[in-house]
């Protein structure tokens, strides 16, 4: 805890001053560009990854970057999605999974989370991911299955997002784009789902335009 307290002091003593104008402007309201949904995993830092500042992305985090289908959970996910889309008017929603995700590992092997009833219950919202992996990737090695599950899971969450009325409405008007990303934090590499190629493609300097192609409006 000492490190965290020292960090707060450093923020107040040196960092805040250099961003004073930004925070003054943000006190008038927020207008983020995107809703960024990712895992609670401490190794993932959305603002570091996207090099965004306060006010630029609206972030929703939970174990496994899961978005329950509309009406399936009384958790805060639906409220965060609705607020970002209908109140803040974000134009993009990114669901970003990541390598070595403990939630996805627990999904594939329920024994790993057998002593964690709340986690086990939460992961039921990703049962579709497990079924897809069990039915289609049984022949893969454990590591390959994990990679496949992480990718399939973000695609399942895009499907779940489409069940939310605010999302469906904005999608139907072509005002919202959905993006599926997978971040390999140990390499600093990012993969984005390309609906035309029906596969994840690596983000590169030359492929930023194509890799950010919307998956929502076309589906
Ligand atoms: Zn995770």
What does this structure look like?
The protein is α/β, with parallel strands linked by helices and 219 residues long. Helix 7 (127-136) packs across helix 8. The relative contact order is 0.13. It has helices at 2-18, 20-26, 46-50, 77-87, 102-108, 117-123, 127-136, 142-161, 165-172, 208-211, and strands at 34-39, 57-62, 92-98, 177-184, 189-194, 199-202. A six-stranded mixed β-sheet has the order 2-1-3-4-5-6, covered by helices on one side. Helix content is 44%, strand content 17%. It is globular. The model has no long low-confidence stretch (mean pLDDT 93). It has two domains: 1-30, no CATH class; 32-211, Beta-carbonic Anhydrase, Chain A (3-Layer(aba) Sandwich), CATH 3.40.1050. Zinc ion (ZN) binds next to helix 5.
Number of domains: 2
- CATH topology (fold) name of the largest domain: Beta-carbonic Anhydrase, Chain A
Oligomerization status of the protein chains: single chain
Helical stretch count? Answer: 10
Structure summary:
This protein is of the alpha/beta class. The protein has helices at residues 2-18, 20-26, 46-50, 77-87, 102-108, 117-123, 127-136, 142-161, 165-172, 208-211; strands at 34-39, 57-62, 92-98, 177-184, 189-194, 199-202.
What's the topology here?
Blueprint (H helix, E strand, L loop, with lengths): L1 H17 L1 H7 L7 E6 L6 H5 L6 E6 L14 H11 L4 E7 L3 H7 L8 H7 L3 H10 L5 H20 L3 H8 L4 E8 L4 E6 L4 E4 L5 H4 L8
Helix pairs in contact: 4-9, 7-8
The structure holds zinc ion.
Zinc ion binds next to helix 5.
Index terms:
alpha/beta, Beta-carbonic Anhydrase, Chain A, binds zinc ion, six-stranded mixed β-sheet, 219 residues, 17% strand
